[in-house]
Amino acid sequence: KEQLYIGIRYFDLRVCRTTDSKLSSKSPFTFTHGLLGGLVREGLEEINEFLNKHPKEIILLDFNHFYDFNDQCGHEQLIELIHEIFGKKICTTAETILECTLNYLWNNQQQVILLYERNRDQCSAYMDRIGHFFQICQSPWPNTPRTDNLFLFLDEKVAVPRSTTCINVIQGQITPDTATIQNNPFSSLETHARETNRRLIEWLSLRQRDPSLINGVNVVICDFADQLFADTVIKLNHKNLTSL
């Protein structure tokens, strides 16, 4: 909920199907990223509550990793849960992402763009419930524990023309390796992320002054996002008035 109110509108969601009877009695799905997180049902209901209060807000939900989904049944259950919670808020009428302008979504009273990282053929039976956006998210992983290498990677990626038919994401995140953990026994992921985020905000601010340096990027993500990060990303949408 805190992320929603500081301005975060894209959620990178990784889901585990659990057999833990204590959890599965409420919902068989939990969020996960290395460790198990909260229940998917509870997280999605929080988002839906926010959307009910703010009918012009648009959310992108990117379901991109599925763990212990042993068969099609797991996807059917998850899709049914998503549809149960959001219903007609999900954009199911647009067939391409380019159609999803704010006016289009507002006119159709749709607030959720659902990105589902699965083959379209495997999900064709669900399009009336979750839409048409399968495997359209390009989100290259830097996979480095070093901040300097992260920004070399980002510079390289934003220099390449991006597809206009995809959601293009840049990941402003380091990935600590074993050596990083061993050399910093009293530190934490959050400590490392805060320093990375400081440099990421500087990197983004430079691109606000020259928007041509970040053309084609739709989403920027980081660990432990805060208000300053959200405000900096939002400003990338503003025209560079000094060039007019």
Automatic annotation (TrEMBL):
It comes from Adineta steineri. One of its GO terms (molecular function) is phosphoric diester hydrolase activity. This is Uncharacterized protein. GO terms for biological process: lipid metabolic process. InterPro entries: PI-PLC_domain (IPR051057), PLC-like_Pdiesterase_TIM-brl (IPR017946). Signal peptide: none annotated.
